[in-house]
């Protein structure tokens, strides 16, 4: 796995590993919404399923449904989230759907007990203040 620059500053300074929080905290919930200063459409869902973290765009590629609120099911060894709005399914690992749509997914790594997501902008568990 290629490593990012480690630069945590700036909103659009290129793709880098973004420190989120210790895994011990993030694993307490099935999904956490990661806010992006780039706007609502750039927010990310961080799922914790079966001992593994997965990151994908938080708004459904169909019409923007909140994927963090979707059901998660495993079929034939494939973990999928089902959008709560129209029930489209997305593979947590690849973002592929049973439809022609695809959800953007992001690499996640664990380092020294912390979770990092590889993303083009900063990500935060708290909303960014609008300026
Ligand atoms: S908005 Fe997600 S399936 Fe329609």
TrEMBL record:
Pfam family, one: Rieske_4
Domain Rieske: residue ranges: 17-117
Alphabetic keyword roster: 2Fe-2S, Iron, Iron-sulfur, Metal-binding
TM stretches of this protein: none
SUPFAM superfamilies per record: ISP domain
GO MF annotation terms: 2 iron, 2 sulfur cluster binding; metal ion binding
InterPro entries in UniProt: Rieske_2Fe-2S (IPR017941), Rieske_2Fe-2S_sf (IPR036922), Sol_Rieske_ferrdox_dom (IPR054716)
PROSITE patterns assigned to the protein according to its UniProt record, in alphabetical order: RIESKE (PS51296)
Domain of life of the native organism: Eukaryota
Protein name as annotated: Rieske domain-containing protein
């Amino acid at each position: 796995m290629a490593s990012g620059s480690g630069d945590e500053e700036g909103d659009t300074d290129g793709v880098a590993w973004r420190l989120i929080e210790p895994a011990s905290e993030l694993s307490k919930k099935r999904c956490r919404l990661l806010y992006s200063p780039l706007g609502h459409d750039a927010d990310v869902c961080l799922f914790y399923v079966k001992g593994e973290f997965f990151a994908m765009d938080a708004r459904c590629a169909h019409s923007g449904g909140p994927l963090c609120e979707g059901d998660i099911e495993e079929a034939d060894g494939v973990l999928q989230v089902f959008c709560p709005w129209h029930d489209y399914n997305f593979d947590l690992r690849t973002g592929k759907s049973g439809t022609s749509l695809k959800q953007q997914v992001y690499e996640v790594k664990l380092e020294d007990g912390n979770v990092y997501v590889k993303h083009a902008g900063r990500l935060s568990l708290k909303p960014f203040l609008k300026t």
